[in-house]
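Quick note —
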Amino acid sequence: MVEQSVLDNRIRVVTKKMEGVRSIALGFLVAAGPMDEPADRSGVAHLTEHLMFAGAKGRDHDEIARMMDTTGGQVGGFTSRDYTCFTTTVLDDYRTYLIDLMGDILLNSQFADFAVHQEKETVIQELSAQLDRPDICAHERLKAHIWQGHPLGRPIGGTIASVAALERRDVVDFFSANYQPRRLIVAAAGNVNHQDLANNVTDAFWMMKDDGKMDAQPFRPMFRGGVAVQCKGVSHVYFSIGLKAAPYAAEERYLIHLLTVVLGGGMSSRLFRKLRHELGMVYDVSAEYQAYRDDGVIVVEGSTTPELLHSVLSQILVEIKGMALGMLPLTEEELWIAKMQLKGQHIIAQENSHTCMSSLATQAFYFNRFIDSDEICSQIQGVDLDVMNGITTRVLGDGLMNSAISLVGPSCEPVCNTATLEKMLREFS
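Predicted structure written out below.
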């Protein structure tokens, strides 16, 4: 059973009692991320997340680490494009202890100069490591291209140059402006009593007062098609194809998920069977619907040799266009497999307290309500084949008219010829 409360200071608390477990997974989602960064302070949201465990008013980093270690639990944090989240899983005995600690961290973090310098170096190391990953480079380059000029197009962690330029004042200003109680969702799943947890949060966060300001209204970015190419010292070509899609809260989100499962969601998907099993052109290829508050994109990714690149891209675009035109419609079997895959993944995930907690937090963020497993599975199961093919035609048709290709590959003319690739996109749009 899911229960929700809104505290006097506007913090939202959402819980789900799970039988047969001793642990509690806790999440503290702050509706603040790269979307809320000043354009000239890219990476400050991610740096702030790194600094949250570096020391509070009454506890330094070592004491915070010792407190966590003594619980036998795990703590972590991550920054997405839409929000920042801090998570922990502990035995139920340590619930109050942990919430008190998180309250201190979220209320009293000090952001000492030495800690800022240290974490900047850590983040720069992370960014440097990502530059050695051509698959990540192709993916991030795609988003930078399609959402140019919008926060969605910025790398979550910033760039090496932007992070190096950040100062303590930037972190303090971002924290003060965005870590507000109206933006905080506390989610818990496991052996939890809702009212007890709400009381714990009230006690730990009573000093957290809202600044009374209005949050900026979200705005959808312009989707930019075309080609982005980066030449690196690699032997293979890594590609990322983007088709414009709906934002996270769209009514057709489950249908788009089913569509991407059929297209490239596993070893039985169309692209995997065609390009891997039948033609042997790729080692791996996948399709995924990636959605955010303000926009979404269907991403098809993989890698191949330079000699096969154009053939691989053509095969992918032929499949997508055939589905868009209704010439290669989904079959009953394909839809059934996709339904079973999505439902199975969801049900299995909900048996894990951490994953369940994450669902509580993100659904509260995107929908301001919780959609239970039965409703999700029912919506997936109830998708009709004719409706599915209609959505496929519309989504992929619109997507092809707003599509982009990002490549990271070796420095050779056939691969890096942007004009040739742009002509290919036009032919399939």
